[in-house]
Amino acid sequence: MDTSQNVPDSDICVLNSLVSDSSESSGPDSDQIPVSGSRPQPTDLWELVKAELARSLAPSVFKVWIKPLQAKCQDQTVIVEVPNQFFLKWVQEHYESKILALFARECQKNGCEEISFELVLPPPPTSPPPAPAPQETGIVRSVPAQRTIWQTQGPLRINPDFTFKNFVPGNPNRLAFEAAQAFARGENLGTDILFFNADHGLGKSHLVQALAQKSLAQNPELNIYYLSAEEFTSEMVCSLKNQQMDDFKLKYRKDCDILMLEEVCFLAGKPKIQEEFNYTLELLLNHGKKIVLTSTKEPKFLGKGLSEQLKSKMNSALLARINPPDFETRLAILHRKADKTGLKLDRQILEFIADNIQNDVRLLEGCLVTLSAKSRFLNQPVSLEMARECLSFVQDTADDDLSAGKIIQLVCLNYHLGESEITSVSRRRQLNEARAMGMFLLRTLTSKTLEEIGACFHRSHSTTLYTIKQVESRLKKDSKLKELVNYLTNQLVQG
Fold it and tell me: Are residues 197 and 266 in the same domain?
């Protein structure tokens, strides 16, 4: 059917440009996967979603949490059964929003009519099939037909556990934590735009959602729109196709008190979307509204793909960088999560996990959840060996290119020492300096844990951690030490 008869020529030109913008970032993986028949069945859509999840998630994550899920069709509802309440809660908290977005996308691509998607627990063995699960034990979300699919931004998709109380602050995230609280309290920060910048898994979404919940608790009359830049783009394209741009503009420019947009880097290279978004920001700011943005890149690193007008507004924001948590913060996160789940762990096990997972808070929490489940299901206490096994499920591991022996050998050669001396109990100054250098290089150039590094020098975990921190501190003000570290690193890397 030729829809151009109902759309003005000017709008068609804009629409073509918008669709072109969106398709440029999609890549070959966005092509529709063929399924049997002229139109896929609801369960076929679930298989398409699983295929996409297999591509986007780590293999170990997909194998544990997604692959076991099987779907069946009941009328126009796709029902996915999960093994138990624990499994259900984990999938809801970590993958539900992604699954719903992918399911909606596949419905839209394949021109399906309205379909529901439901996660449920298995019925009791002796009970008849249960009625549709209530909201607290299952999620039922309607996926509208193609033309209205992106109007499901509706109520905030907020995780109730993502509060300021449940966020563990530390030196790497202190500024972002304090700024989010001040923003939620309505304090004057000199700007109405707050920009969270962090890699994936470090707490951007947690702070944004905590800010939203705190703001609503203080003023329930607020209208807060929380969505991703990709959703904003898709909703705008859909509104234009359906000649509903006036409603779209009214929604974000008049009815919105706080606009929260995740991953604004998605807008790079999409000039028409940026133009609309820039007008929206300008009107909101002129009326004293609040803007919260997140991105894995700082505004200055978004490059030429971002318009100067939009980049200027982002540069006027309060930039709150969230860095990877340090050891103490990781340990505090694990303590908090363990206490919340009632999991009793020795400090040695907590330190082992904190030492091995350094750059992703989600992985830290995921490892504890896996440990808790394994301990409960197998009726076994958590051991260090069990922790090692769980780590293999939640993170990719690889053999070190550099061996401890090679690093220690080069350090000994540079300091004119024998290997037996550097691992001895002597605390002679030259030996201490050589040991510290060896520990630091092992820490930065290999994936060995503090426990393993300490064992190479016959030192404890705490002594190893203290020594490495001393080197890191000295490097900030000792140029000669920095030159030596660079020299030894180059020698090791270049062979």
Answer: yes
Token pair 């940026």: residue = 274
| CB half-sphere exposure, 153, CA atoms < 13 A | 24
DSSP states of 192-235: SEEEEE--TTSSHHHHHHHHHHHHHHH-TT--EEEEEHHHHHHH
Question: Are the CB atoms for 95 and 56 separated by under 8 Å?
Answer: no
Cβ burial of 133 (10 Å; 0-12, 13-18, 19+) is middle
* Vertex 375 angle, CA 374 and 381, to 5°: 150
Say if 165 falls within a structural domain: no
Could you tell me how far CA 287 lies from the centroid of its own chain?
32
Q: Is residue 162 part of a domain?
A: no
Q: How confident is the model at residue 164 (pLDDT cuts 50, 70, 90)?
A: very high
pTM value?
Answer: 0.52
Chosen domain end from 145, 161, 181 = 145
Question: Rounded CA gap, 2 and 490, in Å?
Answer: 63
Per residue in 460-495, pLDDT (tens digit) is: 887 888 899 889 888 888 888 888 888 888 777 665
**For residue 284, what are the domain limits?**
171-321
DSSP states of 334-357 = HHHHHHHHT----HHHHHHHHHH-
Task: Using DSSP, state whether 244 is helix, strand or coil.
Answer: coil
Same domain, 377 and 249: no
Yes or no: say if 265 and 229 are a contact pair by the CB < 8 Å rule.
Answer: yes
Dihedrals φ, ψ of 214, to 5°? -65, -40
User: Is position 23 within any domain?
Assistant: no
Q: Are residues 223 and 303 in the same domain?
A: yes
